[in-house]
Design brief:
This protein has 218 residues and is α/β, with parallel strands linked by helices. Helices cover 44% and strands 12% of the residues. Strands 3-2-1-4-5-6 form a six-stranded parallel beta sheet, with helices on both faces.
Length: 218
Amino acid sequence: MLQAIIFDMDGVIVDTEYLEFSLQKQFIDDIKEHKRPITLEQQSEVVGKCLKEIPVVIKKLSESSLPIEEIRERYYAFFQDLFSKVDFKTIFRADIQQIIQFAKQHHIKLAVASSSALSHIENILTICGIKDEFDLIVSGEQFEHSKPDPTIYRYTCEKLGVEPQNAVAIEDSYYGMLSAKTAGLTVIGYEEKRMLIDQSLADYMGKDMNEILAIIQE
């Protein structure tokens, strides 16, 4: 019996994953110390990574001699500047409201389990008007290791009081799907074709929230 629906946020509830991804290439190009182009496949390594891990991938791709601390400081500034200018309502997948309504009608618990910082998650959910709809909001920064480590999903299920086999995770990235699958959840993938993401771990795939709702209802 389905007892909980757990959402990733970036790339699922809001289309922030692609927004950040589309601007990361220039950041990498600005610090890289080789003349080879950064391929779409290489850049896609950042998708689903938490904020503190992305600079590590960037250092590898850029082969920059800058200390990782400086790259991280620059990237945090880039991140904060980028999202301070975003109108999140314009990239909000508003059809999630139908899934929320279905869950409330059937006494299914709702949670967000995201690699992002808690302040970032809560700010976006508040702007989109859905923060209070969730029984639990969990951030990857609460743990030593975020996704693909399964701890975030195990913790979320434990706090909700449900067994992982009675919960579904809605994810877009390989790391997020791996985290949920390893924890024992069923995974519904939010289809993403603009970036090179391995979504093969998903048990089901939906092109939008309406398709995902239909899968949940079945």
